[in-house]
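Lab notes, practical 5.
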Amino acid sequence: MSANHSSCIRLVNAQFYAWHGVHQEEQQLGGKYEVDAELRFDFGPAAATDKVTDTVDYSRAYDTIREIVTGQKASLIESLAFRIAKALMERFPSLDGVTVKVRKRNLPLGGLCDFAEAEYLIDRS
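Output from the prediction step:
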């Protein structure tokens, strides 16, 4: 009888200052962005060996996220979530899938709102 299992590593509320947005003022002044990333893969081998070489190194995943968020400007948080998810899947072949959430604070809405959030989920086919 085979056991059914799943595992993941989550990076929660990684924070960056970046210059994204539809409006020119947003791109000039910048703002606070937050990212959650759920990295889905079988970490059973890493748990058995206790070696970082047998898992997804989350410091490298964080560096990937930082590179995307603080790099090329985007108008939409949807674009950022998509770029991050695609980059993580490309850089970590052992991933079965990722879910990325990007939150934007300081919204130009003319009213009160904590944040806007875009979520992108991708699985390896």
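Observations recorded by the TA: Strands lie at 8-18, 31-40, 97-104, 116-123. The CA atoms of residues 105 and 111 lie 13 Å apart.
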